[in-house]
Amino acid sequence: MSEIQVVDRKEVRTDFYYAGFFIRLLAFAIDMIVVNAIASIIKGIIGSDVDIFNSITLFTIISWLITLAYFTLMTYFNKGQTLGKMITNIRVIPTRGDKLTLGQVVSRETFGRYVQNKYMILYLLIAFVPKKQSLIDLLCDTVVVKNREYEYYLNTREIL
Q1: Contact at 8 Å (CB) between 80 and 101?
Q2: Average pLDDT in the 34-52 region?
């Protein structure tokens, strides 16, 4: 297993295990089911789809806004977890600092998600990079870890 070693201010070394490609894919699939369910409910409320531009419809724009809002708000307010990450027991943490900043979350979940969804092949980096980070994780100084080890780290750090 791959591990990340974090040293806090009291010089306590903690090992985290990175979340791999397939567990992250499962979490993403669960999240997209939730997002599509919300979007379908809103589409039912709005009714027929209105063509805004050439091939862009009102529903397409609403779906993108729901997706970006869901991932950004859930990750920020749930300390690095969306519903999919909660179910698969993983979370996003910063490689530096104690907690995710709003800038990291917005960059990772809006700009990063847009770029990686446009060029899906970029998701394969997770399988080959030693720390199992995606391109946007590398750029935002974040990593996805297994939650159990992270919670243990938080609990033991408070005792010291």
Answers
A1: no
A2: 85
